[in-house]
């Protein structure tokens, strides 16, 4: 069967894999190929166990795979055959040289652009799916057009806004799809081609177009605003703990103001995930490069509060457990950076684990999906940590439970049974405010939520 278009995605990660699966699922008329430099990742995408866990992903991959969705490690061939190339390689924070610890590391994108240029024999649209500093597209244009082989490339920016755990729903019913282009006749034609792809399932009014720099910036700023909201509510949670105000009530009250809205107001141990910190730091670095030091300091504060929140959680545990954690057995409920994912990148649980180990606590970690990643994250301190699939077993003999991830299963557990198996006094630190604190207190636990008065049996 002939396909209307050949779509390629370079980078089979959390963004590239699900996004392409959705395009293939919604558009059987296109041939969608996903390539990656990591052959193991490709093999996993072709196997019965996909390399990432995302609710609903298995179903759409299995439906489209082999029909019009293909995972391959033949990158050059993929490039040559493609009409449209999405690039979704990673853009981690640079860990060397100028901007180390702040700037986005663009080496993978640049290498990919050079490879596209070297092997392309026909005109192509190149789509930035990864998140970049503003004006990356300009650098890419310069690289792609630096030889006179006559091949034309048009660059578009099409950042992805899906969140992990709800990725498939977000891809199927996005709030908006953003496509930034050059405002030249060729740029607008390329833009329309990408609009046409999304229009297969996304209502036209949700597909918004802009100039390419606005598109690049909007992605960074969206993440910065979301993270800022979490840091704001977390900052207020610390004040609640000092004043007997209750963060859940405060969040509900401010969220009822339609100008503010009620989403993203859950106080927590802090935000994690591969994007927020990296993107804010990239924004901060960019502001500094343009001499906007005050603006940089403003956004940097969002990350600072997040770090503070994580440390505050640990110090609260230390203080309330009689100022020593040495040899205390602490069970972490959850390790993923949020529920419904196995992803642990930048998970606050990593920081909390390391700090608790520094205090010489014994750690037991349980999580329904993230134990493999947790073991890899803590490989250097193996032997000091026990991993347990069953949360009931994990809690046996522990002094404290600390909820790190808001998995539904934890709220539904039989805590009376758990209490009986724990050392006394038994503590619960609810880093996600998902448990019934009054009930736990009645059972005998000393309960420490985020942003609410603790419930303790101590006089
Ligand atoms: C990544 C970035 O983190 C994010 O900023 C960006 O918006 C989208 O891409 P994610 O999909 O979560 O997000 O990253 P990851 O799961 O690490 O996937 C990137 C993939 O690209 C990896 O599978 C890696 O092997 C692949 N890759 C990397 C290439 O195929 N070629 C390269 O040169 C580099
Ligand atoms: C984020 C953006 O939401 C998404 O649009 C972008 O494409 C990628 O980055 P993601 O990191 O996958 O998505 O998850 P998100 O739901 O945003 O959660 C990020 C972190 O914030 C998690 O650690 C989560 O637990 C935390 N969070 C979220 C809170 O602590 N409180 C909240 O109210 C919401």
Strand content: 5-15%
Ligands present: uridine-5'-diphosphate-xylopyranose
Strand order, largest beta sheet: 3-2-1-4-5-6
Give the % helix: 40-55%
Kindly report the average pLDDT value.
Answer: 97
- The separation of the N and C termini measures 76 Å
Tell the overall outline: elongated
* Rg from Cα: 24 Å
Number of strands: 14
| Low-confidence blocks of residues | none
Structural class: alpha/beta
Count up the helices: 18
Give me the secondary-structure topology.
Layout: E1 5-10, H1 16-26, E2 30-35, H2 39-45, H3 57-64, E3 69-72, H4 75-81, E4 84-87, H5 107-119, E5 124-128, H6 136-144, E6 153-157, H7 167-172, E7 177-181, H8 185-198, E8 207-211, H9 212-243, H10 247-255, H11 276-289, H12 293-320, E9 329-333, H13 348-358, E10 362-366, H14 371-377, E11 385-387, H15 391-395, E12 400-403, H16 408-411, H17 415-421, E13 427-430, H18 437-443, E14 446-449
Parallel strand pairs: 1-2, 1-4, 2-3, 4-5, 5-6, 7-8, 9-10, 9-12, 10-11, 12-13, 13-14
Helix pairs in contact: 1-3, 9-11, 9-12, 11-12, 12-13
Bound molecules: uridine-5'-diphosphate-xylopyranose (2 copies).
């Amino acid at each position: 069967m002939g396909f209307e278009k050949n779509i390629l995605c370079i980078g089979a990660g959390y963004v590239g894999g699900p996004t392409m699966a959705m395009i293939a699922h919604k558009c059987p008329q296109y041939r969608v190929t996903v390539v990656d430099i990591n052959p193991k990742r490709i093999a996993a995408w072709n196997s019965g166990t996909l390399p990432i866990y995302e609710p609903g992903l298995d179903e759409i991959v299995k439906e489209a795979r082999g029909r019009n969705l293909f995972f391959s490690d033949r990158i050059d061939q993929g490039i040559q055959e493609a009409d449209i190339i999405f690039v979704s390689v990673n853009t981690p924070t640079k860990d060397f040289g100028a901007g180390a610890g702040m700037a986005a590391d663009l080496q993978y994108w640049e290498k990919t652009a050079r490879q596209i240029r070297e092997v392309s024999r026909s005109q192509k649209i190149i789509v930035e799916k990864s998140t970049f500093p503003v004006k990356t597209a300009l650098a890419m244009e310069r690289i792609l057009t630096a030889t006179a082989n006559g091949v034309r490339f048009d660059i578009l920016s099409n950042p992805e806004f899906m969140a992990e755990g709800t990725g498939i729903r977000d891809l199927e019913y996005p709030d908006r799809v953003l496509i930034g282009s050059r405002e030249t006749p060729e740029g607008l034609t390329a833009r329309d081609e990408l609009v046409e792809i999304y229009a297969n399932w996304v209502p036209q009014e949700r597909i918004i177009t802009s100039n390419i720099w606005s598109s690049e910036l909007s992605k960074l700023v969206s993440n910065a605003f979301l993270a800022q909201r979490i840091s704001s509510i977390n900052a207020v949670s610390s004040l609640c703990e000092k004043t007997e105000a209750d963060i859940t009530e405060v969040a509900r009250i401010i969220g009822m103001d339609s100008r503010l809205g009620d989403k993203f107001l859950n106080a927590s141990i802090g935000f994690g995930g591969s994007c927020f910190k990296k993107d804010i730091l990239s924004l901060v670095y960019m502001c500094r490069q343009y001499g906007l030091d005050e603006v940089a300091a403003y956004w940097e504060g969002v990350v600072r509060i997040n770090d503070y929140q994580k440390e505050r959680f640990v110090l609260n545990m230390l203080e309330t457990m009689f100022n020593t954690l040495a040899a205390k057995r602490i069970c972490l409920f959850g390790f993923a950076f949020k529920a419904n994912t196995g992803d642990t990148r930048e998970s606050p649980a990593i920081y909390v684990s390391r700090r608790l180990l520094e205090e010489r606590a014994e750690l037991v970690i349980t999580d329904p999906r993230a134990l493999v990643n947790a073991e890899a994250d803590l490989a250097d301190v193996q032997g000091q940590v026990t991993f347990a699939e069953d949360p009931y077993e994990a809690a046996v003999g522990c002094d404290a439970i600390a909820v790190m991830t808001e998995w539904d299963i934890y709220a539904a557990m039989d805590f009376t049974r758990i209490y009986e198996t724990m050392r006394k006094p038994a503590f619960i630190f609810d880093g996600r405010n998902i448990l019934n604190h009054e009930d736990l207190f009645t059972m005998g636990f000393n309960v420490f939520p985020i942003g609410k008065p603790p419930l303790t049996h101590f006089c």
